[in-house]
Specification:
Radius of gyration: 32 Å
Strand content: 35-45%
Largest sheet: 6 strands, antiparallel
Distance between the termini: 100 Å
Order of helices and strands: HEEHEEEE
Shape: elongated
Oligomer: single chain
Number of domains: 2
Number of helices: 2
Length: 149
């Protein structure tokens, strides 16, 4: 009798397990997820149409924002400040922008460029880091472009 009870319990458990599996399979095979509609108007970062501002190779963007007619971005790069200043002097002179002002102090500089309808301010600060005897020079760069008043 003990063997019969074990067999009955075993077959009952197998029957319940098989029933649950069949019901789960039927529910899963009939599942139809909601169809998401395509988003036509994607909102996010946009470019300034009249200025395609370039960044040096290997620049690590820290932040970027556009509020009204003011575009701001900042990045960090493993290059000396003088190479960043030369980089932007070349870009803005190719775009026929003029230097409005230059101010330098310690390891930082502020260059202001102007076109007929915009002003660009390039702020750069050089930092040196020393990791395990290996010194690296980084430059933090902030750029602001806005309409002239």
């Amino acid at each position: 009798m003990n063997n019969k009870k074990k067999n009955i319990v075993l077959f009952t458990a197998l029957f319940i397990l098989l029933s649950i599996s069949i019901i789960s399979y039927i529910n899963f095979s009939g599942y139809q997820p909601k169809i998401l509609k395509k988003i036509e108007d994607v909102k996010g970062a946009k470019s300034i149409s009249d200025i395609n501002l370039l960044y040096p190779d290997k620049a690590e963007t820290i932040s970027s924002d556009e509020i009204g007619n003011i575009y701001q971005t900042s990045y960090r790069i493993e290059k000396p400040r003088s190479s960043i200043e030369s980089f932007y002097k070349n870009i803005f002179s190719d775009l026929d922008w003029e230097i409005e002002s230059i101010s330098e102090e310690n390891n930082s500089s502020v260059y202001e460029y102007k076109s007929k309808d915009k002003i660009a301010k390039i702020i750069s600060k050089e930092e040196a880091t020393n990791t395990e005897g290996n010194e690296k020079i980084y430059t933090l760069v902030g750029i602001e472009i806005s309409d002239r008043k």
